[in-house]
Amino acid sequence: MYTFVVYAKRLKIILASQNIYIQNGVLAIFSKIKEKLWFLKSMRVHSLFALFLIGVLPILFFTWEMLNTYNSTAFEQRKNDLQSQGSSMANLLLSSGYFSDPSIEEVNTELLRIANIYDGRILVVDSKLNILKDTYGIEDGNIIISEDVIKCLQGINSIRQDKENNFVEMTVPITHNTSKDIMGVILMNFSTKNINSVSSKLSQKASVLFLTTAILIFVYAFFYSGVFTKPFINLKKAIGHLTEGYMDEEVKVDGFYEVKQISNSLNQMLLRIKNLERSRQEFVSNVSHELKTPITSIKVLADSLIMQENVPPELYREFLVDITEEIERENKIINDLLSLVKLDKTASEMNITSIKINDLLELVLKRLRPIAKKNNIELIYESFRPVIAEVDEVKLSLALSNLIENAIKYNVEDGWVRVSLNADHKYFYVKVADSGIGIPEDAQDFIFDRFYRVDKARSRGTGGTGLGLSITKNAIHMHKGAIKVYSKENEGTTFTVRVPINYIA
């Protein structure tokens, strides 16, 4: 029993593996078929079929409608003619006394003439179902048993079309003018071959016209689809040219307005990539330079001490103080770089809590007041309303600290810094305005770049690393906020920060 169970399990595993193998084989076949039918997803093929169908379907419908209209109109006209001729013959039969004398030559001649005109057969039947006249001369004197004739004697006219045998059969009652009694029936049977023949010829000509038009439309659609897709093909070639490394060339594609818009957007993206690459290269260069400068200074100071003999303790102390300052500067650059790296990480590392922004600003100002007092800068705080928002307290505090500290450091003697807080239903706003030296207009687009300094000598004199505003911008953007600057040289600078009250992940 155990052996049987083992074999059953093995068989189940083998069958499962076979099923997986078959499924993989089927998927592989479908994948190959899909690859071979790639052209079905082509824009040119879709536009070709769309143009072809738009051109052909109306013509096809018009042709079909025209033939149907002709057939129905021709049949209706023939029916009206027959009814009119039947009424005339009924009056002639009554007025000539044909029911008393069926041998009247003038009447029989007229019946034959009408039958020949319409390529048909006419039977005159009296009220007892006797056939008084058959234009074919076959049924004269016989009795006719016909449902249509009997109904007509009862006052019910009928008309019947036999499309298979190409004839129309109708009954016309012969009614007495005064008594209104039905004296007999005219049974008419007429061919519709001429109508069908004309319809067939029209159908043939319409088919030739339709095929000719369809071919012309297809040729036009083929060439127009090529013209339609050519700008996209050129755009693809241009993008391929860019991927080969020719980043300095602009994408120029003539064609439809939308293609030009795509081309312009691509050029803007390309310009953005170039700026990012330039910024990256400048960043690497600046990082290397900024980290190298303090080390170079330390090496120069240390070499100066080593090369001198019998150096006084005072000189040792002076050099060591300078070395300590350079080490502190190097440490500050590294710390700012680490802060920037942390801020560059994904927003999933945001530690969002609901805090009172008024208290946060007061805490930041409390830490910076000694620096402002040292530089004789008046620090003013205006809060228009209580604001509670969902933010990362550490990152937002770092951003606001950098803004206010810069306003203090790059100010004029006996200047002022005004910090204000306001809010609406969706955002809170922090404005940092100062009476400082201002920022040149041509430099305002670059002040958030890493290591960018408007005045490098003054920045190093104030201990700046060129990373503060970049850190601030990153922190604000991580909160889905925005920061703007307005400044004039020698008139001061105003930074405006807008941050959503409710954090949006």
TrEMBL record:
This is histidine kinase. Keywords: Coiled coil, Kinase, Membrane, Phosphoprotein, Transferase, Transmembrane, Transmembrane helix, Two-component regulatory system. The chain crosses the membrane at residues 45-64, 208-227. It holds the Pfam family HATPase_c. It is an enzyme of class 2 (transferase). Its EC number is 2.7.13.3. GO terms for cellular component: plasma membrane. GO terms for molecular function: phosphoprotein phosphatase activity; phosphorelay sensor kinase activity. It is found in: Membrane. CDD domains: HATPase, HisKA. SMART domains: HATPase_c, HisKA. GO terms for biological process: cellular response to phosphate starvation. Residues 226-278 form the HAMP domain. Residues 259-286 form a coiled coil. It catalyses: ATP + protein L-histidine = ADP + protein N-phospho-L-histidine. The keyword Transcription does not apply. Residues 286-503 form the Histidine kinase domain.
